[in-house]
Amino acid sequence: MTATIEPEVGKSRRRKEDERLITGRTRWTDNIALPGLLHMAVLRSPFAHAKIVSIDTSAAKSAPGVIAVFTGADLDPDGAIGMPCAWPITPDMKAPRRPVLAAGTVNFAGEGVAVVVARSSAEAHDALEEIDVEYDELPVILDMEAAIADGAPLVHEDLGTNTSAVWKFDSAEAGTGGNVEDAIGSAEVVLKRRFRQQRLVPAFMEPRACVVDPTGTQLTMWSATQVPHILRVMSALTLGIPEHKLRVIAPDVGGGFGGKIGVLPEEMMSLIVAQKLGKPVKWNETRSETMLAAHHGRDQIQDITITATRDGQVTGLKVELLANLGAYNGLVGPGVPILGAFMFNAIYKIPAYHFACTNVYTTTTLTDAYRGAGRPEATFAIERIMDELAVELGMDPMELREKNWIKHEEFPFTTVCGLTYDSGNYEAATEKAKQLFDYDGLRAEQARRRESGDKVQLGIGISTFTEMCGLAPSRVLGSLDYGAGGWEYASIRMLPTGKVEVTTGASAHGQGHETAWSQIVADQLGVAFEDVEILHGDTQSSHKGMDTYGSRSLVVGGIAVIKAAEKVVAKAKPIAAHLLECAEDDLEFAGGKFTVKGTDTSTGIGDIALAVFAAHNLPDGIEPSLDSDATFDPENFSFPHGTHLCATEVDTETGRIKVRSYVCVDDVGVAVNPLIVEGQVHGGLAQGIAQALFEGTEHDDSGTLTTGTFADYLLPSAADLPSFTTDRTETPSTSNPLGAKGVGEAGTIASTPAVVNAVVDAVRQFGVNDIEMPLTPMRVWHAIQHGTTDAGGPGRSEAGGGLGSIDASGGAQ
Question: How far apart, in whole angstroms, are the C-alpha atoms of residue 518 and residue 730?
Answer without folding.
Answer: 22
